[in-house]
Specification:
The chain has 305 residues and is an alpha/beta fold. The protein has helices spanning 56-66, 84-91, 109-118, 137-148, 163-172, 194-205, 216-219, 238-247, 270-280, 284-299, and strands spanning 28-32, 70-74, 97-101, 120-126, 153-157, 177-179, 209-212, 252-253. The structure holds (1E,3Z)-4-hydroxybuta-1,3-diene-1,2,4-tricarboxylic acid.
């Protein structure tokens, strides 16, 4: 099937630079997506955007280029609860990718087992209104109870302003909970201001909650402009991500977010995104936890010696 991209859609960066930061051996890109290709894996009728194609082969080529070893492929909303493109990527990864799916209440136990067998280890609940229609919380809680039995976790995606309203629901989730992109703080506000303090409190009070310290390109107000050196963009996000890495070093993950859906102003050079890592994880020990130990514990626990 041929799909017309959403007007103004920005395609992923075709020729990313080589990072100057050498990531530790065995690093995991713990947040990335595949889109289609639409001709093979059609986008969902209920989608809010139609992206460019971004295939598993292109994802794995980027992984190698950046020096990473593994991927966690997160189901993108443009594929709804049809997980075939993500599953196909896992199947062709030689065991080097695990996945996070989107499922509905109607999913059968056999389907969950099948997803587990190919490497799915979590489900994503999305509360970003521009991306998805509302799913009743009782339905999500029912899904959470079922996937908890498989040892899976729940990935949650929401905007910082919605945390107060969602707090009780998130607190009741019976699994490990992974927050996408630090709960999307407004980095124009102080790092010790009311909004981000609430997120830090949320992590402090819930030892089962982890955070991806990803997406500076999405959160930054100063943007891609290099402020402190040629390869030094998105500086306004650093204090936020660094604070989370340093207070919760055992509960943080990092990902490229390739192919970067719905960016409006610029498409990041993925090599530069990797060079952001030593600014937020400033010791080799923190870098190893962020890129290797934590994602391995969550997604490949059977390999932990
Ligand atoms: C992200 C962000 C976005 C979209 C999706 O599944 C998706 O459609 O995740 C977004 O537009 O903010 O983290 O990948």
């Amino acid at each position: 099937m041929d799909f017309e991209k959403t007007p103004g859609w920005m395609d992923w960066y075709a020729d990313p630079s080589k990072p100057t930061f050498p990531v530790p051996l065995g690093s995991v890109d713990a947040h990335c997506h595949v889109f289609g290709p639409g001709a093979e894996f059609p986008f969902a009728p209920e989608r809010k955007y139609t992206p460019c194609d971004a295939s598993k082969a292109q994802l794995f080529a980027l992984r190698n280029h950046l020096g990473f070893a593994r991927n966690v492929v997160v189901q993108a909303t443009c594929h709804g609860a049809d997980n075939r493109a993500m599953v196909d990527a896992l199947i062709h990864s030689n065991g080097m990718a695990r996945g996070v799916a989107t499922v509905k209440r109607s999913v059968t136990d056999q389907e969950l087992q099948d997803l587990h067998a190919v490497g799915v280890r979590g489900v994503r609940f999305n509360f970003v209104k521009r991306l998805v229609d509302f799913t009743p919380k009782d339905e999500l809680m029912e899904i959470a109870a079922r996937i908890a039995k498989l040892g899976w976790h729940v990935v949650i995606y929401f905007e910082a302003v919605d945390l107060p309203e969602l707090w009780d629901f998130f607190s009741a989730l019976p699994t490990t909970v992974v927050v996408d992109h630090m709960g999307r703080p407004d980095v124009g506000l102080p790092v010790d201001g009311e909004q981000f303090e609430l997120f830090v409190k949320f992590m402090r009070e819930h030892p089962n909650v982890w955070s991806k310290v990803s997406c500076p390109e999405r959160l930054s107000v100063t943007g891609p402009k290099a402020l402190g050196g040629e390869r030094d963009p998105y500086r306004d996000v650093i204090p936020f991500a660094r604070r989370i890495v340093e207070e919760f070093p055992e509960r943080v993950l990092w990902g490229t977010d390739w192919p970067h859906p719905n960016l409006k102003d610029h498409m990041p050079d993925d090599g530069l995104l990797v060079d952001f890592i030593p600014h937020i994880a400033v010791t080799t020990e923190l870098q190893h936890q962020l890129l290797v130990d934590n994602p391995m514990r969550l997604y490949w626990p059977e390999e932990n010696g």
